[in-house]
Amino acid sequence: MSIESKKIGIIGGGISGIAAAKQMSKYSPVVFEATDSIGGVWKHCSYRSTKLQTPRCDYEFSDFPWAQRDNTSFPSYQEILDYLYSYATYFDVLKFVKFNSKVVEIRFVGGDSEKSGEYGSLLPGRPVWEVGVLHTGGQSETTIQWFSFEFLVICTGKYGDIPAIPKFPQNKGPEIFKGKVLHTLDYCKLSEDESTQLLKGKKVVIFGYKKSAIDLAVECAEANQGEEGEACTMVVRTLHWTVPHYSVWGLPFYIFYSTRASQFLHERPNQGFLRTLLCLALSPLRKAVSKTIESYLTRILPLEKYGLKPDHPFEEDYASCQMAILPENFFSEADKGKIVFKRSSKWWFSEGGVHFEDGSSLEADVVVLATGFDGKQKLKSIIPDPFRSLLEFPSGSMPLYRGTINPLIPNMAFVGYIESVSNLHTAEIRCKWLSRLADEEFKLPSMEKMLDQTTQEMEIMKRSTRFYKRSCISTFSINHTDEICKEMGWKSWRKNSWISEAFTPYNSRDYNEEEKK
User: What is the pLDDT of residues 471-491, one digit of tens each?
Assistant: First the structure.
């Protein structure tokens, strides 16, 4: 069996994988993309109505601005795919991508020669991982081709591929339902005509209340206009705050959470005793910010009318990256009776619909599970033992130093597994950091110190939100990037004046190394 040997392998051709390939292009990496196109979830998990949830200027590569970056509208998924293809073409990244190449197995061949307590070099000069790839381009070929790498970057992400399916009591699952059951992952594969035909004139029940469920409910309502159209029912287990736009009481949203001044109110790692006391003293102000936003949302949205006002503070949703932007016509469709809501934490199937713990039931023709994805199972399916058991702590969080390196897994990085307001920026700056780490421009601290750092971050997430398992750094994202800049030898304060530094938001352009070292 011949094995093709390279220095760096990248698994996944989404935003993170393309960012990693560009930053590490000097090493001619091999990018394995299981499908026939780049784009990741933007390509394979988007509806026809899917849009970005931030302005385009907050979702761009540092050295490749949008053609109309001052356009305040949120770009569609197709615009994002076009932007990503333009980026990959401009920087000649596509030559590194092997399409229709699904990674089915990873083997560790590195031995145990690293010094105890130290992580070691990313490029030790010998293979550490072997990767088995099945080529899936419509051929009947089942032979696995093997590659070896000194360093692997996992960019398969937390979303897509493996749906999270609820567990049901025996004989009360989808197998007894006479209608159609599908997950949003299946819905994304439908054409516009197919999706309209699925929803039009049907009694549709959607389980979920996050962005994918909300967008789907609007598409369902739009397909059922007129007297003969049926209402779409959203079954809501956990409420989350939703926002209609990026302004609060006439003020830009970024001033509340996305500047140094606003993030100064929040806890951060390695802050010291005095800083901890200051955070405690400022906690009333932090709560007041959350209350200000809640009061605005409660006033302009009919949350109480429909029983959709969460019991937890807005800050907890922001701290867990669960703030969803509402489609413009979401509540107008609810006012017309085309979208209705049902609160329930437990439910199960019957032949003709679904039943709930309060004894009520709903007839249904179509049930759509907007219940998310199992990103960790996706990782566990390819990461070998004993490293599979080291992917996450007992708390459920992944221990990733700088959001990238698991100190317990050698010569492997994970990009796209922590979240912030702009996941593109979060991925790109960490890929720049990885590239310089591979170049040995700096060294990692000891494994003990890296684990201590990740533990501190997890504890902050736990204290900030009950939804901490999502690994979101939005309330201390600037500080997180500051630490990355310091390790790379960059200035951490990137603005031209202290006023801008304190009161204007950061975005990818602030980290263009060609402009600001």
Answer: 899 999 999 999 999 999 999
Angle, CA 12 vertex, CA 209 and CA 391 arms, to 5°: 70
HEC profile for 174-235? HHHCCCEEEEHHHHCCCCHHHHHHHHCCCCEEEECCCHHHHHHHHHHHHHCCCCCCCCEEEE
508 SS3 class:
helix
> Does residue 302 have a cis peptide bond before it, meaning omega lies within 30 degrees of 0?
no
Beta-carbon neighbour count of residue 90 at 10 Å? 12
* Helix spans in 381-440 (H): 423-438
Sign of the four-CA dihedral 47, 48, 49, 50: positive
Cα 275 to chain centroid, rounded: 30
Task: Look at residue 511 and tell me whether its pLDDT is greater than 60.
Answer: yes
pTM summary value: 0.94
pLDDT single digits (tens) 210-256: 999 999 999 999 999 988 899 999 999 999 999 998 899 999 999 99
Using alpha carbons, list the distances in angstroms from residue 159 to 43, 289, 326, 388, 416: 12, 31, 20, 19, 10
Take residue 419 and report the two structure tokens written for it. 């979240």
Bridge partner list, 362: 354
Side chain identity at residue 187, one-letter code? Y
Which among 132, 126, 127 has a CA at the least distance from the CA of 146? 132
- In DSSP notation, 455-482 reads HHHHHHHHHH-TTGGG-B-GGGHHHHHH
Closest to 118 measured CA to CA, from 491, 343, 445:
445
